[in-house]
Structures are given as structure tokens and as C-alpha cells.
Amino acid sequence: MRPIAVPLAALFLLAVVAPVAAAPGSAASTVAAPAATGMYRAVRFERRPLPATERIPATKGYHHYVKLDQAVVTLRADGKFVASFRYWHHHLKDGAPVPKSPMLTETHRGTWSERGGRVTFTPDRKGKQRTAPIAGMLADGMLRVNYTVQGATGPRALRLDLARDGSW
User: Fold this and answer.
1) Residue-level pLDDT at 143
2) Is the pLDDT reported for residue 24 higher than 60?
3) Which DSSP category does 97 fall into?
4) Hey, how many other C-beta atoms are within 10 angstroms of the C-beta on 152?
5) What is residue 168's predicted lDDT score, i.e. its pLDDT?
6) Which conformational region is residue 2 in: left (phi greater than 0), alpha (psi within -120 to 50 degrees), or beta?
7) Global confidence as pTM
8) What residue spans define the domains of the chain?
9) Which of 26, 17, 29 is CA-nearest to residue 158?
10) Exposure string (b/e) for 44-65, b if CB count within 10 Å is 16 or more?
């Protein structure tokens, strides 16, 4: 079993729950917008404040339990991004209690561009694995990233809301 990364792999959600479709249109520019640069911290996952829990159906009788503690995305002026996550993940039999376990961390890097408030993230390739670009919207100091994961019952849309950190 391959691990699941939360949001943004969530920007970058990987593996057992892999990105299905987030490929944006070709309108994205290749130059990062200076006004969009900065650090963004997750404030909500699936419209709930962090830490937030989500259960995603897996195979019959099992589900993925994901608890997102923190997500931080830094958009640099050179068009590069870094997205870091702290989370828990378990593949559980339905009805089973969530076991105690250490928190997981994951970092993703790549390039980003912005045009008209639409942000396109293109994660770096990991070995032979290529991750589809992920789209987000930037407005009023908030970055909203919607992405699709493949669950047992088909595609499922998830949402991560990040607020600009003024201390960056």
C-alpha cells in the first residue's frame, strides 16, 4: 500500500488516493505574479477548521482516515512553490478505532503561475511518477485549492482554504 498525502497532494495528494483531474486550462502565465507571492497557511480543510478529519472510502469495508494538522504553501517570486503538510493517515476497516500513531510530514515542490486570480501548481516529478497540475483561486488574501481524489465510489472533490500569512 502506498501512503496518502493530504491536501494539496493533496496539492499534492499521492498514491492510494491519487489526483484524478485538476488540469487547468492553458491560460496560465509562466511568470509568477509578485502580488501573489508569500506564505499561505491552511485554515480549513473541507470547510472545517484545522485540525480536520476526513474519511475517504477505499475498498469494500475499508476507508482512509486522514487528519490534517497543518498545511503551508510558499509561493516564491521565482515561480517556485513549496508545500508542506503535517497529518495522520490510516487505512482502516470500517468501524475500527483510529490507532495512536506518530504524525507524518510531507513536502512537495514545483512551479506555480497566476493569471486573473487562477493559480496553477505544477508539482516536480518524483522519479517516474508524474502528478497532474492542480488549480487554485486567489482572492482577498485567501488561496482556495480544489482537487479531486479517486475513492472507492469514484472521484471525490476536496477543498483546502489557506490564508496569507502577513509575517512572511
Assistant:
1) 95
2) no
3) P
4) 15
5) 59
6) beta
7) 0.77
8) 7-165
9) 17
10) bbeeeebebebebbbeeeebbb
